[in-house]
Every structure is written in structure tokens, then in C-alpha cells.
Amino acid sequence: MIKLIIGKKGSGKTKKLVDMVNSAAETSLGNVVCIEKGDTLTYSVTHKARLIDADAFGISGYGEYYGMVAGIKAGNHDVTHIFGDATLRIGSRDYEELTAFLERIAKIDDVEFIFTVSADESELPKKLSDIAEIC
């Protein structure tokens, strides 16, 4: 399952994501992972969740982002949730590439994915609503 937290910059997407990460870390029977760009969430996300800075691994573009996500799941089958903040800054602002990325992510089983997307819902392709739940 994929959920997207959509809104313009400053609309509270990251705060909502952090709340969801912390809640999932408290209730999950497996591991919770949060991928961010930079290290801005270090003190906001509970230590019970694994926080990964995409910049520390040189991740840029949706191909590399997918590889990282797939590698996290392949390396640890106990992962129940993967959160991604600043999705367009890690990938790109190309919404067709975002759609292709999410289609690939949807093929990964047994993980709940939640990504933030800094855009107005009207800017995004209609096809995204078939792939992901909009929050």
C-alpha cells in the first residue's frame, strides 16, 4: 500500500509524516524506516525508527531511490513501514517519473509506504490516484 501526503511547501507534510513514523514505530511488530534528504529529522523521529539520510549515500533520481528502497526490504524482511520525506527533491519534479517510481514501489509486498510530495494535487497526474492513496 502506498500513501502520499500532498501539499505545497509549508503545509505541514513533514510534521504529519513524523507523527506517522513515531506512531508506527510504537505499534509495529517489525521495523520502521524513514528516508529523508539531509538530516533535519534527527531529533523529531523516535530512536525506534531507522532514519536514513539519502544524501549520505549519494541518492538522487528515482532509479537510485528505488534501488535504496528495494535494498532496504531485501536486506530486512521485518520492515513493515517505509516513509519518505522530500520525495521530489530526492527523485525529481518530473511527475511522470514519480508515477513510474511509485508503480515499481507498488510491486514490493508486505510494506506500507508513505511519501511526502510537495505539489498541489491538481498538478499531479490522475494516474497517481490509481497507484496511491492521497492523504
- What class, by secondary structure content? alpha/beta
Helical amount among residues, as a percent range? 25-40%
Return residue spans where pLDDT drops below 50 for at least 5 consecutive residues: none
C-alpha Rg, in Å? 14 Å
Q: Count of DSSP helices?
A: 5
SSE sequence, one letter per element: EHEEHEHHEHE
Report on this model:
With 135 residues, this protein is an alpha/beta fold. Helices cover 36% and strands 23% of the residues. The protein contains 5 helices and 6 strands. It has helices at residues 13-27, 62-75, 87-90, 95-105, 128-131, and strands spanning 2-7, 31-36, 50-53, 79-84, 112-118, 133-134. A 6-stranded parallel β-sheet has the order 3-2-4-5-1-6, sandwiched between helices. α2 packs parallel to α4 (95-105). The longest helix has 15 residues, at 13-27. It is globular and about 35 Å long. The two termini are 13 Å apart. The model has no long low-confidence stretch (mean pLDDT 96).
Task: Please summarize what this structure is.
The chain is of the alpha/beta class and 135 residues long. It has helices at residues 13-27, 62-75, 87-90, 95-105, 128-131; strands at 2-7, 31-36, 50-53, 79-84, 112-118, 133-134.
Itemize the secondary structure elements and their pairings.
Elements: E1 2-7, H1 13-27, E2 31-36, E3 50-53, H2 62-75, E4 79-84, H3 87-90, H4 95-105, E5 112-118, H5 128-131, E6 133-134
Parallel strand pairs: 1-5, 1-6, 2-3, 2-4, 4-5
Helix pairs in contact: 2-4
Properties at a glance:
alpha/beta, 6-stranded parallel sheet
